[in-house]
Specification:
Layout lengths: L9 H28 L1 H22 L3 H23 L17 H4 L1 H31 L4 H30 L1
Helix pairs in contact: 1-2, 1-5, 2-3, 3-5
Length: 174
């Protein structure tokens, strides 16, 4: 299902590559400082770089999975930065409310947010273009209605699984 992207302009592809690569490089620069403060955050920063490199490869090869991986990398980094500043992360509570930070590495947080948000916005646009292309292709397909029904069933099932996971988390891990 995560096949080649058909209708994506080259400018979008190169913009996506630039944005996700910038996300990974920012996390590479900031990783050593975070290894000292909370090792797991340094490891996650390194994983961010590796995920960004894999996403670049996928996007360059015009594969849809590259865009999805990039969205997970950029969106996850964006979400976790916000969580670290609003609520705090284990072993990293001193950064709550400290949006600008006290070092060069910490000062990269805000620019990183803009880059990650730009990638996520571009991802939404790319997925929308791909969905339109697939919808046009399905209109001429006799199996289009059946696929749409299965897609809806899987979407509902995924939502139910997510809801159950949240309930289990609240009951047993809070």
């Amino acid at each position: 299902m995560l096949t080649s992207v058909r209708q994506i302009p080259k400018a979008f592809r190169w913009s996506g590559i630039s944005l996700i690569l910038a996300t990974g490089l920012i996390h590479l620069v900031a990783a050593p400082d975070h290894y000292e403060e909370a090792t797991y955050i340094g490891v996650l920063f390194s994983a961010n770089l590796l995920g960004a490199i894999a996403a670049v490869i996928g996007i360059y090869r015009n594969e849809l999975w590259g865009w999805w991986l990039g969205a997970a990398v950029a969106g996850g980094a964006l979400a976790m930065f916000l969580v670290s500043r609003l609520i705090g992360l284990p072993g990293f509570e001193e950064h709550v409310g400290s949006w600008l930070g006290d070092s060069v590495e910490d000062n990269l947080g805000i620019p990183s947010l803009f880059i990650e948000a730009a990638f996520v916005g571009l991802f939404v646009w790319v997925i929308t273009l791909e969905a339109r292309a697939q919808a046009l292709a399905q209109q001429s397909s006799p199996d289009g209605q059946k696929r749409e029904e299965w897609g809806l069933i899987l979407l509902i099932a995924g939502g139910v699984v997510l809801l159950i996971g949240h309930i289990v988390h609240l009951l047993f891990f809070s």
